[in-house]
Amino acid sequence: MKIARTLAIALILLPTMAFAWWNKDWTQRTAITLNTSSAGVAINGVLNGVAIPVRLHSGNFDFVGARPDGSDLRVLAGDDKTPLKFWIERFDSVNELAVLWVQVPSVMPGTDKNAIYVYGGNDKAAADANGPGTAAAIGDAAMIAAFHFAEKDGIAADQTGLIKATAATPMELNGLIGPSARLVGTPIVIPANDKIKAAADAPFTVSLWVRPDTAAGTLYAQGPLEVTLVAGKLTAKLGAISVSGGDLAAATWSQVALTVDPGKLALTVNGAETSQVLPRPLPAIEGEIRVGEGLQGLIDELEISNVARSPEWIKFNYAAQGADAKLIASKTENTGSESSSGGGSYFGILFKSLTLDAWVIIGILAVMFFIAVAVMISKSLYVARTDSANRRFLRQFRETLDVLKIGGERGGEQFGNSSLYRLYRAGLQELIKRKVGQGDRPPLSGPALNAVKASIDADSVREGYALNSQMVLLTIAIAGGPFLGLLGTVVGVMITFASIAAAGDVNVNAIAPGIAAALLATVAGLSVAIPSLFGYNYLASRIKTISSDMQIFIDEFVTRVAESYGAQ
Predict the structure, then answer these.
(1) Is residue 163 part of a domain?
(2) Dihedrals φ, ψ of 439, to 5°?
(3) Cα–Cα distance between 34 and 330 in angstroms, integer?
């Protein structure tokens, strides 16, 4: 007993041990956890050979690093060593959506440590014998037929591909799990087959998912067995015995399971069971199958078993196929990261969850940021050189008595960066043209002084243009950065919710990475705008000071010229 108890505990704790990365050639993996504790979806016993759908999306898988067809995917058991059989129902690398059916050897009750790992990101991976070519091996031995309604030609076939409907059915790409069949009143007819039948007094289970648009029709009919919907309420009949129970809401996915057990007929809707005692002998169930006759809506995942599935099995399948957030959690990891929640970088998760549109927006914002930084650096250096040269020139201007003899021949070298010196040179040229200070030239008249001042003012305006050049790029970064970031966030949130709706995975682990990544665009926008705002205000104040100094200098220069060479 002690040895058995020790082995049982080891099996339960197996996925929590710090196993090494399965193969370093694969750069990423997604950890899928099935929580069967009281905090998740509790089951009372071990379930063996269950097939669960694993939904991959941008929030838990890096499609950019994987092959476009998903042929590099591998699925490992919780020991991170044992390969598991799987089948890819859908792999859409463009829209970043995928659905894998994985056969899990066993699911232990009362623990949140049931785990499997999906590996991806290996361009050199060879073909895998365990998948993803066919669905034939997915499911336990009691599963005699499973119709996923994912066939491209619309002709529904079971997991072996041998049992097929007689005619094509309209398809809905984004169904419950992957593609689903659209019911238009005409039944999906599956010819009689020796494989899909139950002898008299033999157990039998049928389960399917349906999203009705009408309140009446036949969900499933085979020989004496019939499951019908009348006024939104379900009724199951086996010969003369019937059981009613469960309402189906319109335009809402619901799981319907019918279990025939010697002595009981049970109808289960979304995990809630209604049963009826059956007298013996029970009739044999065989013949042609008709699905969805007189019903409009969508149907998916028709599974037929030659055993009476337990309530635990049906409840688990309902939670797994319906993507119950309490049951299934997923998390993406990089090469060498630990499987614990503390491992890895949060920013790494965010960047891996970014959608293409978010990358485009962030790329544009990155270009804006570098342009803004370049403008702030170049303008800061320009303003600093100008201000320093202005101070040196102004000091000499005020120390020199003759206003026409400032700077000398080396003035251009000394004060080349000074805007005041350039204004002085502009005024000096006007004075030279009027031969001021040469021989017996008469003093400058008032209109002549005004003309000199007007010329200097014109150069002052041009100096202002030079000082303010490229500042508009900062205003664009300040005003446009947050709006571009907000655009990226809104589009990212829209895509995240659309992908979640399409994949059917509604747990917080599916939503949170996509939303957090979408918000990264807003962070990028603010990261552009905030430094640009500070830089713009600093430069604007320095430019305003220099502009004021230029205006003061013009008045001072003209005044000194009038004092020295103007008419008295």
Answers:
(1) no
(2) 60, -135
(3) 9
pLDDT of 502 reads 65
- Looking at the fold, whether 376 and 319 belong to one and the same domain comes out as no
Q: Whole-angstrom Cα distance, residue 409 to residue 497?
A: 73
**Residue 369: CB partners within 8 Å, gap ≥ 6?**
477, 527, 528, 531
In a shared domain, residues 234 and 365:
no
In the numeric block, which tokens belong to residue 452? Answer: 């000199």
pTM of the full structure? 0.63
Same domain (yes/no): 364, 219? no
Dump the DSSP string for 162-186.
Answer: -SB-SS---EESS-SSS-EEEEESS
In whole angstroms, what is the distance from residue 409 CA to residue 566 CA?
Answer: 25
Within this chain, do residues 227 and 302 fall inside the same structural domain, yes or no? yes
Q: What domain count does the chain have?
A: 3
**Does residue 62 contact residue 148 with C-beta atoms inside 8 Å?**
no
State the Cα–Cα distance between residues 282 and 271, nearest whole angstrom. 25
CA distances from 146 to 18, 156, 184, 217 (A): 36, 10, 21, 22
Q: Mark whether 484 and 414 lie in a shared domain.
A: yes
Q: Which of 339, 361, 380 is the last residue of a domain?
A: 339
The answer to whether residue 157 sits within a structural domain is: no
Structure tokens at 508: 């917080």
What are the CA-CA distances from residue 262 to residues 198, 256, 289, 399 (Å)? 12, 20, 22, 116
In a domain, 169, yes or no: no
Q: In whole angstroms, give the CA distance from residue 404 to residue 161.
A: 101
Residues 290 and 320 placed together within one structural domain of the fold: no
The predicted pLDDT at position 545 comes to 92
What pLDDT sits at residue 408?
A: 62
What does the alpha-carbon distance between residue 102 and residue 87 come to, in Å, rounded to a whole number? 7
**CA angle, corner 79, sides to 76 and 83, nearest 5?**
25
The answer to the question of residue 51 being in a domain is yes
Q: What is the pLDDT of residues 304-314, one digit of tens each?
A: 999 999 888 99
Beta bridge partners of 234: 229
Range of the domain at 321: 1-142+309-339
Q: What is the rounded distance in angstroms from the CA atom of residue 57 to the CA atom of residue 420?
A: 63
> In this predicted structure, what is the pLDDT of residue 551?
92
Extract the residue ranges of the chain whose pLDDT is less than 50.
Answer: 1-19, 133, 336-344
Instruction: Kindly state whether residues 324 and 447 are assigned to the same domain.
Output: no
Whether residue 138 contacts residue 101, with contact meaning beta carbons closer than 8 Å, is answered with yes
Which residue in the block uniquely carries the two structure tokens 């939104």? Answer: 232
**Do both 18 and 41 map to the same domain?**
yes
Alpha helix (H) residue ranges in 289-355: 311-321, 346-353
Read off the CATH number of the domain in which 244 is found.
2.60.120.200
